[in-house]
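Predict the assembly for these two chains.
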Amino acid sequence: MSLAVAFSAAPGTVVALVGPSGSGKTSTLRAIAGFMRPAAGYVSCGGEVWLDTTAGIDVGARRRRAGFVVQAYALFPHLSAVENVMAGLIDRPAAARREEAHALLARVHLSGIDDRKPSELSGGQQQRIAVARALARQPRVLLLDEPFSAVDQPTRQRLQAEMVELRGELPMPVVLVTHNVDEVARLADSLVLLADGKTVASGTVNEVFGRFDLRPHTGHFETSMVLHAPIGAHDPSTGTTFLDHPAGRLSVGLMAAAPGSMARIRVRARDVALAVGEPGRLSIRNRLRATVSEIAEGEGQAVDVRLDVGGETLIASITREAVRALDLKVGQPVVALIKSMALDRPGDFG
Amino acid sequence: MDWQALWLSLHLASLTVLLLLPLAVLLGRWLAVTRISGLSLIEATLALPLVLPPTVVGFYLLVAFSPRSWFGDLWRQVFGGTLAFSFEGLLIASVLINIPYAVQPAQRAFEAIGNELREAAASCGMSWWRALFRIELPLAWPGILTGMVLAFAHTLGEFGVVLMVGGNIPGETRTIAISIYDRVQAFDDAAAGRMAAVLLLISLLVIAATLLLSQRIGKRRG
């Protein structure tokens, strides 16, 4: 296949490669890891050139130090959990390997399963081992190929939460291939949108999510935006976490992270309602002070209203009739209403 | 009971397997992963001994062993003897005709490992040899063992090629299979029966041991 993709990722950030099947996401990862040699290409990582076809440079896969977690994990079936991780530690002195592997397993929240074979472990446990093995080599880049696709929904939620936690500690860039909009919203800093082996768009998650002209490519993953806000407080008695967003307080389902840490909330455009003036007594707890920045009328009933909320962008999908009734205009102050129950639910790109 | 022939057969079979083992591992692994064009032609050539009549294989080997051929001539210059009707010639013939029995199961076993695991080994920074010994051989060895057992058993039973290339020289080329034929020709049914029974027993033991071994390993692997 032909592949025309270019992007870069800063250390400690996560780039998501998103696109339909056959769009070249996995091929891109394989080219980075050194398992696919493009006819023409350039890959450099941490100041080291791994591939430069014009200069005739092609570093072998085993020398590239790319941590690769593939969809089916590719654990060594004859080795135990700890031995699988030790396989990634061959650069380390033999005596220290077992202990280091043990520590890596603990880091991905696995303990007490050191001596089990992959076939005796659940999908979630296998995924964690694959991540630990990839990290064992102290890779210059971490490549994740749909790492959450082979597990059930509750496990996926848990693994994603753990990955959110882990990503803050990782010193290397992470390239994540995914179909899932929640994964992008929760994990990615930037996004490369691929179609037919070409880059359609790239930028921060909100830059790409917020572009109406990308609808033909992103339409199937439902318009949404990501809000960032520090966690203010937890209220376990009502199962609520409060976020201090500059445009107003947000209440969401109870989160695991400590108060003060930054949270990301994905807000679907269709879950945002607008009010002009003070909305009064409502069950909707999330009310953000917003300013209308764009009104994009499409062909059907829906109109996308772009809002500025405390410096961030939110999109509200409302009816044409509502736009008329409220007499919405660009620059007008409004209140964006979001049901707490609508926040941060899992959803697929399809 | 022709113990000398039995011993010669076991000796020949063991040496054949010993020589075939590295060949099966390296050639089987290469065939499993290579993407060169003309692979089918190579595979077909290697499989020829399966379909060719033993007399045809034997005839070509005799031609090659003859001092008039470059191979036979080279052999004579280096080792100072002829290969036809010698144990060494028999061994070469045995290795050649057993290539498909040894290599094909090994190739299938290496194919079954899949590229993902090979790439995972490379991602871990393993060298080619390290990946072979730590990952591929532990996974592929039941298939390799199957090939070795097949080659061993097939060597014990080979008749046509042995007769063509080795003839029937006691202690040099008379294998147990030839000896049984000999006894039958001499109407010594009792001796032929004893040797046939011994061969049957050995074959059974080898196969049973192989099955047991691979079952136990299979269980341990989970």
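Chain A touches chain B at residues 33-35, 60-63, 65-68, 70, 72, 74-78, 87-88, 90-91, 117, 119-120, 133-134, 136-137 (CB under 8 Å). The first helix of chain A runs from residue 25 to 33.
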